[in-house]
Fold:
Amino acid sequence: MRSNEERLKATLDDIKKADTAITRARTTVANAGQKLKELKATLAELAASGIADAKPAAKMIVKKDGTQIRALAIINLEDEVRYKDEDGQWQSIAKSDVDKIQ
Structure:
């Protein structure tokens, strides 16, 4: 029978191996993404390949207090600005709080 210390050591070794494999996989994905960008892949092609930073072009909402909000879509209404955040959720802020949209 293995002692608790032996099991703990084996588990920590397994975690270390998993971390190494994850790091290698992330590096491979990053290299593939860079290669696709060098080949001038479109956003749709990047997204289809599963590259993490293949997000649609975003606009920036700059509030009067200086805060910036990254928006994937924006709808300007009479009294408010509705926008889709990076999680794909629709949010709204008062138009009077908005300095500019870039």
